[in-house]
Amino acid sequence: MSRRSLPVLMMRRFSTTTSHRQTKRYKLAIVGGGAGGCSTAAKFANKLGKGRVVVIEPSKYHYYQAMWTFVGAGIEEVEHSARPMKKVLPKAADWIQAGAISFDPENCSITCSNGDKVEYEYLVIAMGLKLDFEKVEGLTDALANDDAVCTNYTYEHCTKTFKSLQNFKEGNALFTFPGQPVKCGGSAQAIMYLMDDYLRKANKRDRATIIFKSTAAALFGVPQYADTLNTLAVDRDIDTRFGWNLTSVNSEKKRGDIQWQRWRHFSDKEVALCFCRRGPSGCVTSTLCRRHRMACNGQCAYVRSPGYWSNYSFLHVVPPMMGPTELQGSSLAGECGFLDVDKFTLQHVKYPNIFGIGDCTNIPTSKTAAAVACQSGVLRRNLNSVMEGTNEMRKYTGYTSCPIVTQEGKCLMTEFDFEGNLLETFPLNQATPRFTMYHVKKTIMPFLYWNMLLKGFWEGPAFYRKMMRLGFGR
Ligand code: FAD
Ligand code: UQ1
After folding, report:
1. Residue 309 burial (CB count, 10 A)
2. Does 336 participate in catalysis according to the annotation?
3. How many angstroms is it from 12 CA to the middle of ligand 1?
C-alpha cells in the first residue's frame, strides 16, 4: 500500500457475516497479545474508543516468560508466570481468540484460524518468535522422554529443568546456545550459574563438569559485561567453548549422545569476497554463496565440519528460534524471516500503516521485554503521528536489558543500546553482580510487568536513568 492510499482507508465500522466467516473492520488491529501486543492495546484501546481496536491472539493465557529462569532453578512456582489472557487485555479492545494465518497488506486484511477476516486501517504486529525444536534432530523426543534433557524456554518444559537438576548425579552438565537470534540470550547462562550454585550448596559440585557450548563468539556482546562473565566462569570452574552448534540429541540409545557442528564467523572481508548479500538486519543470505554453504541465521555463521559427538548427564538446550511462520515468504518479512521494520521508527519498510514491536521484528537488538517496554513508547508516539498525519517520528535507541542471575541472590543487570553503549539506570557499577539487582529482577520486575507494562504505563527506565544522572546523559 502506498503512502497516498492511506486516507482512502477511512473506517466504516460494521461486521458482515457470510455463511462461514465474519469480516470485521477495525481502526487498529494488533496481532499477538504478549508483552508488545498487550501494552500496545492498553495504550490505544481507551484513546480510540470501545470496539475500534482488536487483538488477534490464540492463547488462553498470557505468560511472564522472565519468571521461567527462576522456575527452572526451583525458586519460583510456574503457575505464577501465567494469567488468563482475558484478564490482561484491555476491556475496551475486542479479542479474537484465534491465530492470524495469512496477511494481505495490500488490501489491509488478515485471515484468522477461526475463519474470521479482519480489515484494518492500522496494524501492529507483535507475534513474538517461534521456537524451532525440529531443527535439532531428536530434541522433541529427548525433552519428552529423557530425564536429563530440559529447557527453560517454554511454560511446559521449565518445571522439568529443576527435576533434571535434582536428579543429576555426576558427569557432563551441558548448556547450549543456538546460532539464530534468540529471546533473552542471558537466560541460557543464568540457569547454568544457578545450577552451579545449587550443586555447590548440595556439596555435589565436584562431581560435575559444567560446559557452556555456544555458536556465539563470546559470553556477551558488550565487553564490560563479557569481562565480568568470563571472570565468573573461570572462578566457578565453568568451561566455555565457542563456535559450537547442537545438531542432534540421541536419547533413544540412552547414552546421552549429542552431536555438534563447528561454526565459524565470517569476517566482513570474506563476506565481500564471496559475493554474499547482506540482509536488512545484517544477516548473510545463502542464495548467492554456494561455495561457503552459508546459512541465513542472523549471525553470519556457517557450518564447517560434519559433526562431533559428546555425552551428557544433564543438558539444558536453548532451542533454535525463527520469525513467525505465518510471515515467512510474505512481503511483510525481511530476508531472515522476521518482520521487516525500520529499526529506529518501528514502521514497516514497505507499508506505512503497519508497525512492529518485540521479538517478531528484525530490529537488531537483544530480544527482551525490556526492549519491548522502550519500543512501546516509540511506537505509541509514531503510530499516533501517522494516525494524525503529522509524520513526526521518534527514534528507538535499541535500548535493551538482560538481567543475568549469577547465583541465588545476585544478578548482573546489563543495559545497552544498538551499538553496545551502556544505558544503565542505576548509579552503581552495574558490571558487578549485585543483590540489589537480584531484588529488581525477582521482585520489582514482575510487578512492573503485570501492573505497568501490560497496562501501557511502563515505557522503560529512560526517565529514571536521566533523573539518577541529574538530567545529564542519554
Ligand atoms: P511474546 O511476549 O512472546 O508474545 C507473542 C504473542 O503472540 C504470544 O501471546 C503468542 O501466543 C502470540 N502469537 C503467536 N503467533 C500468533 C499468531 N499467528 N497470531 C496471533 N498471535 C500469535 N525479557 C526481559 O526483559 N527480562 C528478562 O529477564 C527475560 N527473561 C526471559 C527468560 C526466558 C526463559 C524467556 C523465554 C524470555 C525472557 N525474556 C526476558 C524475553 C521476553 O519474555 C520476551 O522478549 C518478550 O516476551 C517479547 O514480547 P513479544 O510481545 O514480542 O512476544
Ligand atoms: C524492563 O523494563 C522489563 O520490562 C518490564 C523487564 O522485563 C521483565 C526487565 O527484565 C528489565 C530488566 C527491564 C528494564 C528495567 C530496569 C529498571 C533496569
Report:
1. 11
2. no
3. 33
* Residues contacting ligand 2 via CB (< 6 Å): 66, 369-370, 373, 401, 403, 413, 415, 425, 445, 448-449, 453, 458, 460-461
Q: Burial of 1 by CB count in 10 Å (0-12 exposed, 13-18 middle, 19+ buried)?
A: middle
Is-contact 321 157, C-beta < 8 A? no
Q: What is the pLDDT of residue 470?
A: 64
Q: How far is residue 71's CA from residue 211's CA, in Å, rounded to a whole number?
A: 21
Compute the distance between CA of residue 26 and CA of residue 33 in angstroms, rounded to an integer. 16
Query: Is residue 153 lining ligand 1, measured as CB closer than 6 Å?
Result: yes
Measure the CA–CA gap between 444 and 462, rounded to whole angstroms. Answer: 16
If you search the block for the grid coordinates 546456545, which residue do you land on? Answer: 177
Are residues 225 and 415 in contact, defined by beta-carbon separation less than 8 angstroms? no
- The residues that bridge with 410 in the sheet, in sequence order, are 407
What is the edge-to-edge ordering of all strands in the sheet holding 149-150? 149-150, 314-316, 171-177, 208-214, 238-242
Q: Which amino acid is at 247?
A: T
Distance CA 149, CA 424 (A): 36
Task: Indicate which residue of 150, 158, 336, 402 is catalytic.
Answer: 402
**411: annotated active-site residue:** no
* pLDDT averaged over 10-residue windows placed end to end, the chain, 474 residues: 40 40 94 98 96 98 98 98 98 98 97 97 98 94 94 98 96 92 95 98 96 88 93 96 86 69 59 41 35 38 60 94 94 92 97 98 95 98 97 95 98 95 94 98 98 98 82 59
Check if the beta carbon of residue 407 is closer than 8 Å to that of residue 201.
no
Q: Which of 150, 184, 336, 411 is catalytic?
A: 184
| Nearest one of 257, 312, 244, 243 to 138, comparing CA atoms | 257
pTM of the model: 0.90
Specify the residue for cell string 462461514.
20
CA separation (Å) from 18 to 21, 22, 23, 459? 5, 6, 8, 41
- Cα–Cα dist 337/454, whole Å: 27
- Going by C-alpha positions, the residue among 143, 134, 193, 184 that lies closest to residue 164 is 143
> Which residue in 332, 347, 348, 356 sits closest to 385, CA to CA?
347
Q: Which ligand 2 atom is nearest residue 464's CA?
A: 17
Residue 125 corresponds to which cell in the numbers above? 504486529
Answer whether 99 contacts ligand 1 (Cβ < 6 A).
Answer: yes
How many whole angstroms from its chain centre is CA 233?
A: 25
